[in-house]
């Protein structure tokens, strides 16, 4: 009978030849556990000397740990990362999801502008092509750490006073409910993995090669009329998504 704790289940291939970077990564994971969240790792040069490997081997191991969210860059060093933020796939806002985990959500406004809707956007919002829409782009933060970038499109005719009445660093869903009288009741959402563009990577503060989770959402009110189309980009090393399922 196969031992469930056999090395193959830890990522070691059947032929038993373990790549050097993977062996270093495994040893580094033990170091991370000892250091704990926020602990500063030794430099690449020091790690290479400790493990008796080339610096590029250490660099590759650290790259994988970075992608997995086990470590993060801080200044010119590398520290042990905390657990990933778990965001529910629901109509709850980003604010609610982050607060439930004891973190402080905030946002930084990049853009709030009026645009003419192209045919695709107009169809998704059920407005005429050329009608004005709001485009609001905000960097998402948790405990002042940049973790995502959100672009929201809305009909200007439906929310004519958005620029005047909405505080861009606050929850947009609370604004919709409390000030605009709109309750989001359903949504279509699609998730895919992408790489950030150079501009997006700069705004979020990540390397361009870091995988991102991209969410496309169209939300509707109780009458089934679309209210928003949202494109949300989340850091793959800092976020995971959860949902509840049941068999009816």
TrEMBL record:
Q: Does the keyword Transcription apply?
A: yes
- State the organism of origin: Streptomyces fildesensis
What SUPFAM superfamilies would the database entry show? Chorismate lyase-like, Winged helix' DNA-binding domain
Please state every residue range assigned to the domain named HTH gntR-type. 16-83
| Name of the protein in its database record | GntR family transcriptional regulator
List, alphabetically, the SMART domains matched: HTH_GNTR, UTRA
Entry-linked InterPro entries: Bact_HTH_transcr_reg, Chorismate_lyase_/UTRA_dom_sf, Tscrpt_reg_HTH_GntR, UTRA, WH-like_DNA-bd_sf, WH_DNA-bd_sf
**Record-linked Gene3D superfamilies:** Chorismate lyase-like, Winged helix-like DNA-binding domain superfamily/Winged helix DNA-binding domain
Q: Sorted alphabetically, which keywords does the UniProt record give?
A: DNA-binding, Transcription, Transcription regulation
């Amino acid at each position: 009978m196969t031992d469930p704790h056999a090395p193959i289940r830890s990522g070691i291939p059947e032929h038993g030849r373990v790549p050097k970077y993977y062996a270093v990564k495994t040893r580094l994971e033990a170091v991370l556990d000892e250091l704990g969240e926020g602990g500063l790792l030794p430099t690449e040069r020091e790690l290479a000397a400790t493990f008796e490997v080339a610096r590029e081997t250490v660099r590759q191991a650290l790259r994988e740990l970075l992608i997995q969210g086990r470590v993060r860059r801080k200044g010119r060093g590398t520290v042990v990362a905390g657990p990933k933020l778990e965001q529910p796939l629901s109509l709850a806002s980003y604010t609610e999801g982050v607060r439930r985990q004891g973190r402080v959500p905030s946002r930084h406004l990049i853009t709030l502008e009026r645009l003419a809707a192209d045919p695709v956007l107009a169809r998704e919002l059920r407005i005429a092509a050329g009608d004005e829409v709001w485009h609001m782009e905000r960097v998402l933060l948790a405990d002042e750490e940049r973790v995502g970038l959100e672009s929201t499109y809305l009909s200007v005719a439906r929310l004519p006073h958005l620029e005047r009445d909405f505080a861009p660093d606050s929850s947009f869903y609370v604004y919709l409910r409390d000030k605009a009288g709109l309750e989001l009741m359903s949504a279509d959402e699609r998730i895919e993995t992408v790489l950030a563009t150079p501009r997006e990577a700069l705004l979020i503060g990540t390397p361009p090669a870091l995988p991102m989770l991209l969410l496309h959402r169209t939300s509707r009110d109780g009458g089934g009329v679309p209210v928003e189309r949202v494109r949300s980009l989340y850091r793959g090393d800092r976020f995971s998504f959860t949902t509840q399922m049941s068999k009816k």
